[in-house]
Amino acid sequence: MQSALERLAEADLLIAQGAGPQASYRFKHALIQDAAYESLLKNRRQALHRRAAEILLGQPERAAAEPEAIAHHFTQAGLDDLAIEWWGKAGDQALRRSAFQEAIAHLGKAIEMADKAGGGQAAGVSGQQLHMHVAYGNALIAARGHGAPETTAAFAHAHDSAVSDEDAPERFGVIYGLWVGCYVRGDLTGMREPLGRFPPRGRGASGMAGASFFGCSATIASVVIMSTSARGSKEDSNCEPFSGTAAATRYASASAKSGQRAENGATCRPVP
Q: 20 to 30 A from 90, CA-CA: which of 60, 64, 99, 210?
């Protein structure tokens, strides 16, 4: 192997950096690299990509710094499950660094591969994949805004993925993302619909997901007030009338505790 690399360097096809067994080599021109890559049979290429990923995994510091490189090699090796996992890790890392465009690209790749692996059916995905959907939506919020069409589409896709798991903690973040998108766009009717999707009494909420639930519960009063005001009537098709802002505030507080009943006795039924 070493002698073959040295001959290629002498033929001016490779550039050597360093000397001896510790030297590293790279192609002198991208066209030469492409020609060499295309000359390999598919099975051989996949085997080399798998080996490259395994070598990177054996270097923890480099693996932590370059998860997208591992994801790329697993993708080219045809190992979809591992590729999805590592594209998700790369997206999470980019999101933590506020590299939102990178996060969108990496998480979008993971979601695309997961959808293809599932035959285009989003429902029933794993909790890990649902986490990727939520992270993708959060990256779009940061890069393009809550009300952007692609942000709404991302959270709607995430919600479809969560339908089969009523207690999925990530579901609270999904519903909150849908609600905020409607709020930013001034879609009063749309604001009510996500609130009706919460599982009873916040079942399954914890951590940031729980915070999303309680934050969303606290806005129910404002949704009712704004929607009834917009119609010019105090009557609401799903809730009994509220007697002013104070009553609405009491409802929001009680809603956060019980998920369904206010201290003044008014009840609100989820929107179908």
A: 210
